[in-house]
Amino acid sequence: MTAFSLSGLKLTLPDALLTEPIQNMIDNGWYEIEEMRALNRHLRTEDRFLEIGGGMGFIAALSARKVSPERVTTVEANPDMIPVIKKNLADNGFEAAEVIHAVVVPEVKDQTAQFFLPRSFWAASVTADGMEEAHREVTVPAISLADLLEEKQPTVLMVDAEGAETNFFTTKLPEVLRQIILELHPDKYPASSIQKIFRRLDQNGFVYQPNGSQGAVVCFERISQ
Questions:
Q1: Inside any domain, residue 169
Q2: Nearest to 54, CA basis, from 84, 14, 21
Q3: What is the DSSP letter of 48?
Q4: Domain holding 52: CATH number?
Q5: Buried b / exposed e along 51-85 (16+ C-beta atoms within 10 A)
Q6: Residues whose CB falls within 8 Å of the CB of residue 92, separated by 6 or more in sequence, listed in order
Q7: Is the pTM of this model over 0.90?
């Protein structure tokens, strides 16, 4: 087990999950830095925060520090990461944050879905297309994005779904949702897919917000009517 600190948070990661690229990102302070900057720019103390793609719990812990853990939900499909997230939240006093083990899908056709796990936990995905690392396939619970949003009623949504975002935002989003922070994965799909994402969000009343956006991490805010 490797212990380290990021932005004043105490984090641990099992050695089996600590690849050289992840170690390099941590050592240089680059891990999730764009997401952290976006969160710092847009998250308010009164927000309810929902994260799709919990990783090792760093972003969930950051948000819990700002809004209180009871107002934070993080969803992660990789079963190996669930105990990691829970430990990192608990070690920082945020055990009240909700951790859901599920893969988020546009529409639930079955109660479970297949998920592909390479050693680099941040590359786990609903598809093995283009996955260069050796990987294993697991079956995990499935939940639709619409159901998740309806139940949790977040005001801020962060999505890092490793390509699955191309199928998101096809239905009406809750009125309470005011901010979306989304990591694009242009190496996984063509520019036309990015165009479709932007169009769907536009149809839901969201506009691209350059403040907080950097690189593949883009921010959208609801236009006030």
A1: yes
A2: 84
A3: -
A4: 3.40.50.150
A5: bbbbbbbbbbbbbbbebbbebbbbbbbbeebbebb
A6: 9, 10, 61, 64, 65
A7: yes
Pick from 20, 23, 33: which is nearest to 59 by CA? 33
CB atoms within 10 A of CB 126: 20
How many domains is the chain partitioned into structurally?
Answer: 1
DSSP class of 55: T
Tokens of 15: 């050695």
User: If the chain, 225 residues long, is cut into consecutive pieces of 10 residues, what is the mean pLDDT of each piece?
Assistant: 91 89 88 94 97 96 97 96 97 98 89 86 75 76 95 97 93 96 94 97 97 96 82
Name the token pair of 135.
Answer: 């990987």
Does residue 83 lie in a domain region?
yes
The three state secondary structure string of 152-202 is HCCCEEEECCCCHHHHCCCCCCCCCCCEEEEECCCCCCCHHHHHHHHHHHH
Q: Three-state DSSP class for 9? A: strand
SS3 40: helix
Domain that holds residue 77: 31-104+142-222
Identify whether 129 is part of a domain.
no
DSSP 97: S
Asked if residue 113 belongs to a domain, the reply is no
